[in-house]
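Table S2 (continued). Query chain:
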Amino acid sequence: MLRYLTAGESHGAVLTAIIEGMPAGLSLAGDYINRQLARRQGGYGRGARMKIESDTVRFLSGVRGGLTLGSPITLQVENRDWDNWSGVMSPEPDGRVGERVVTRPRPGHADLAGAMKYRHGDIRNVLERSSARETAARVAVGSVARRLLEELGIKIVGRVVRIGSTEAVAGSFDMEELAAEMAGSQLQCADPDAEQRMIAEIDQARKAGDTLGGIFEINAYGVPAGLGSYAQWDRKLDGRLAAAVMSIQAVKGVEIGLGFAAAGQAGSLVQDEIFYGQDRGFYRMTNRAGGIEGGVTNGEVVVLRAAMKPIPTLYRPLRSVDLITKEPVEASVERSDICAVPAACVIGEAVVAWEIAAACVEKCGGDSLAELKDNWHNYLLYQRQV
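Corresponding output:
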């Protein structure tokens, strides 16, 4: 079983993740993960912190000579702004924790609810962990899963399909065409004309002290039928994928395949009819289910979309109430992005990669990559013979 935990605060010394259950013998290099971390920090509309941080990963355990050992993998991402926060965020009682106290909760954040839950008088104790900075650790973890999936012939590709009021044309679902269409894109968008309108909307929002949300899409190619299970609710792969994507900060909606659009259509226009050919086996001419039926993959491309709300930290602050004095105030302002939908798309790729990798390990097992691949190839051979 694959599982992981992350730890660390936004302005703490480091972000840390521990991965358990990754098979031994997987080739894994820091540069591979660093490329994904750099993608997370990119995209038009990002804030000032992206100019401060240049995330790189460090392996503390579980990897030797570029290969996983089968033991727990510890990943660490340093916060390069730590020197400016070491006093404020010090774990020692003689630090400067009384500085930069936050008592004005920001609407749309975990600030007020978190302070009430944990009985904090300083909202910094909440926002430092609830911050989307935590997702750097999840991208590092998801990159390890992505490497495993590559060994099994599975590729994950994400794209931005909407920012603000601008929506990209549907475009191709072919993996190679999609990657080519997004080459050089500032917003991970496959529609150049729409991207220019998106950039104009971001510039307008920046001038107004506002923010923008949008929709991103994740496609998983090469996923065979049979991952996940219908036997128990918590083993359904669509449920696990939806939970993983929904857990990304600011994501407020997730759909698979036709998703919400299916609710307004007749059943004959929603289901994917089944065909069979000697060269292809069972297949579908359409993929309205998004590659999952009954909690189990059906052999088609897995397609998810997520709606990200506009970032709630505004440079034109909204009204709030001071946590201590109860007086009306303007909400606190922390460093923030104008639009982080492309970054959320990269994070979406990472969490989807993790859940699909976990389902692959559950299905075919193996303490080593060689054993897992043997089991995997035997399963694929069985499917071709059905």
